[in-house]
Amino acid sequence: VQLQASGGGLVQAGGSLRVSCVASRNIFSFVNMGWHRQAPGKQRELVAITTSGGITVYSDPVKGRFTISRDNAKNTVYLQMNSLKPEDTAVYYCSARDNWSSYWGQGTLVTVSS
């Protein structure tokens, strides 16, 4: 399984950005898909996940600002990020889990300037 993340970049605080993750197979096959992030010098943390049953979960720091969504026809999961803050600066990783394993994308860098 390959997960290709894209859409990162430089944005000013208060701005918006959408990152995408394209999977190499039908995303219906995954129990869940999600986004994690890792800031410099910090551990990787969960940002949001979406399950095959339609449940979404967000971490407290992004709740109300970020939205995870999926386009099953395109095998793609999105993370819409609004009201970005400098502390959102990190490498954002796409993840997927099926009944046998977990998979990670290569990451896309999001930099929020103050």
Structure overview:
This protein is mainly β. 0% of the residues lie in helices and 54% in strands. It is built from no helices and 11 strands. The strands form 2 sheets. Strands 2, 4, 5, 6, 9, 10 and 11 form a 7-stranded mixed β-sheet that branches. The mean pLDDT is 96.
Rg from alpha-carbon coordinates: 13 Å
Which structural category do the helix and sheet elements fall into?
Answer: mainly beta
Number of beta-strand segments: 11
**How would a crystallographer describe the biggest sheet?**
7 strands, mixed
Terminal CA distance reads 37 Å
Uncertain stretches of 5 or more adjacent residues:
none
Quick structural summary:
By secondary structure, the protein is an all-beta fold. It is 0% helix and 54% strand.
List strands and helices in order, with pairings.
Blueprint: E1 3-6, E2 9-12, E3 17-23, E4 32-38, E5 45-51, E6 56-58, E7 66-71, E8 76-81, E9 90-97, E10 102-104, E11 108-113
What distinguishing features does this structure have?
single chain; 114 residues; mainly beta; 7-stranded mixed β-sheet; 4-stranded antiparallel β-sheet; 11 strands; globular
